[in-house]
């Protein structure tokens, strides 16, 4: 089922939701894989090979559930690439993937800070045990009222349990939550619980659902 984002600029009814639950990666935080791409080119690998291996469920899910550390994840990536590029280059790629820098989209951050003035904000993210340190490094330690991370909770989206945990932290019923995510399957899981869902593609997708004009809360950024 495809659920388009609500129409930009449309203000929802005042009683539409009592809390906002928002994804982190590819909504607020973006990773820079430039070094990984350069290493792939030098090794003769197609671009995206390392990410495809790293984000495969067999490697990615144990990391996101807190069953392995980021260091162990890097070692698994290395093992998966060694036969193709040799141990030294495989190790470089594994480390580059695990240590890829990230940035925050300041436009989205500004919108979230503004909506938090109205209702509780909970970050709901499939992330590693480093989540709180990562947020602090980006200057986002105070962005949300609560942070619900998969590795800390032992459950990952789109499992309904993590949505219920997030709603409980916000102190509202699940059907009184607005949920934002860049993955359709995660939005669909929220809709199945009775939440209002927003499929994120760009910051403008949040203006209508949050009840803001196109320029409210904008400070620049990308």
What does this entry look like structurally?
The chain is α/β, with parallel strands linked by helices. Helix content is 44%, strand content 13%. It has a 5-stranded parallel β-sheet with strand order 5-4-1-6-7. A two-stranded antiparallel ribbon has the order 2-3. The longest helix is centred in the middle third of the chain and has 16 residues. The N terminus and C terminus are likely disordered.
Could you give a quick summary of the protein structure above?
With 222 residues, this protein is an alpha/beta fold. It is built from 11 helices and 7 strands. It is elongated and about 55 Å long.
List the keywords.
single chain; alpha/beta; five-stranded parallel β-sheet; two-stranded antiparallel sheet; 7 strands; 13% strand; elongated; disordered N terminus
